[in-house]
Amino acid sequence: MPTLRSVFATLAATALLATAACGGGGDSSEDPNAKVTLRFSWWGSADRAKTTQQALDAFHTKNPNITIKTSYSAFNPYWEKLATETAGGNAPDVFQMDRAYLREYADRHVLAELDEGVTDKVAESVKDSGVVDDKLYAVPMGQTTYVMVFDPEAYQKAGLKPPAKGWTWADFLSNGKKLTQTSGGKASGVTDIGWQWESYEAWLLQNGGNLYTEDGKLGFGKDQLTEYLTLINDLRTQKASTPGKVTATIDGSIEKMPMGMRLSYTENSWDSTVPSYYEVLGKPVGLAPYPSDTGKLGAYAKPSMYLSISQKTKVRSAADKLVDFLTNDPEAATILGVGRGLPPNTTNRDAVGATLTGAQKAVYEYEKSIESELVPAPPAPPKGNSAIKDYWQTMNEDIAFGKLTVDKAAEEFFTRAAQELNG
Q1: Axis crossing angle, helix 169-182 with helix 222-237, rounded to the nearest 10
Q2: Which of 115, 237, 252, 310 is the most buried (most CB within 10 A)?
């Protein structure tokens, strides 16, 4: 399957996207009232697909001249497909974008510049997060933050207190071991957090570091990386977390996460995924901040995902209408709830929050409970981040399968990261 790096290399070589991004994009002569078909792609689970389609149906009712063709998939397959479509000059008209890839797609002129008016009522915490080089290329679909999802029944059966603010990484290890033992080895206490590059970000924020500096350099040293890799390797070797063969199956969908497959009882995630856990597991889950040894949560308000418009779209007027609808329309906010995090429009957020129940209420209350402790969002990842993110997963699996030692992995990481950031 193509990686983003290989596809972007093809883009550069063939100059498929050589036209500079501009505010208009598409065909400036299009009739805004003409009947058009618009392609919209996103990633997510089946439960998200249901609410998304309901919101799109409401949009079509208000805009009967616009027909929307949709596609969705799990996170990893989504990016593989989008990279291929982009390389072929056939990107969807509107599509979800992620903070990890925003700069790379913007720098390759894949994204159309958006009218800043669409973010007038978006929360200040995420309002400008879609800006690259002073141009708006993406609008937040929601606000999310780090969370540990856990199975309250498993903790009760193991005689453990539920995770809560104030627990430590030592608690994380001891809880994981106890949960694994109680299951008789059928499931692991925690999911190996090493699968996710961004979880290292949370640990760094707790300990005075960051993934990147303002000028796009690595924001941590070898000692910090070694300490973290040792932490997650200890979780594996002491059988607190999932083994490599389980972790390697992760594709970003909740159905394929260890906890979604009933192979783990505690899992790192974004709180926007909580409704999917309720749906997949068929029961409520508990929510807690990441464990910390410093008293800092290491969490910040993050756009759960963005909406972007293809620079090559031929239906720009319709694409603008859809982005504005999904961002600001009260009916859309009510339908979507917090399935992609808290609604970005603050007026809609307060209105929706008062009506929530079940999983969506749990997400809303969780974010409210830690709101005062969220730190400012780190700088947007630089070009090369997506390749580093991919390499991180490979490196973690190599350590898990015994192909690399922690020390060797830390050494090789800096060499690889320098190549990606300077390439």
Answers
A1: 20
A2: 310
Model pTM score: 0.79
Find the DSSP H helices in 108-168: 152-157
CA dihedral 63, 66, 69, 75 (to 10 degrees): -60
Q: Are strands 36-43 and 302-303 parallel, antiparallel or unpaired?
A: unpaired
Angle at 126 between CA 275 and CA 330, to 5 degrees: 60
Locate tokens 């390499």: which residue?
Answer: 391
Q: What is the pLDDT at residue 43?
A: 94
pLDDT at 30: 66
By mean pLDDT, which of 135-139, 159-163, 364-368, 374-378 is the weakest? Answer: 374-378
Q: How many CB atoms lie within 10 A of CB 118?
A: 18
| Residue whose C-alpha is closest to residue 344's, from 143, 52, 145, 144 | 143
Q: How confident is the model at residue 100 (pLDDT cuts 50, 70, 90)?
A: confident
206 alpha carbon, distance to own chain's centre: 20
Q: Is the pLDDT of residue 378 over 80?
A: yes
Segment 317-365, tens digit of pLDDT: 999 999 999 999 999 999 999 889 899 999 999 899 889 999 999 999 9
Please determine, for residue 89, whether its predicted confidence score (pLDDT) is greater than 50.
Answer: yes
DSSP 180: H
Kindly report the backbone phi and psi dihedral angles of residue 302, in degrees, each rounded to the nearest multiple of 5, phi listed first. -120, 140
**Cα–Cα distance measured from residue 393 to residue 84, given in angstroms and rounded to the nearest whole number:** 21
User: How would DSSP label each residue in 344-397?
Assistant: SBHHHHHHHHTT--HHHHHHHHHHHHHGGGPBPPPPPPPTTHHHHHHHHHHHHH
Dump pLDDT digits (tens) for 102-146: 999 999 999 999 999 999 999 998 999 999 999 999 999 999 999
Looking at the DSSP bridge assignments, the partners of residue 267 are 149
Mean pLDDT, residues 91-97 taken together: 97
- Separation CA 31–CA 12 (nearest Å): 32
Residues of 350-377 as b/e, b for ≥16 C-beta within 10 angstroms?
eebbeeeeebbebbbebbeebeeebeeb
Q: How many CA atoms lie within 13 A of 132 on its CB side?
A: 26
Residue 29 in tokens: 């002569």
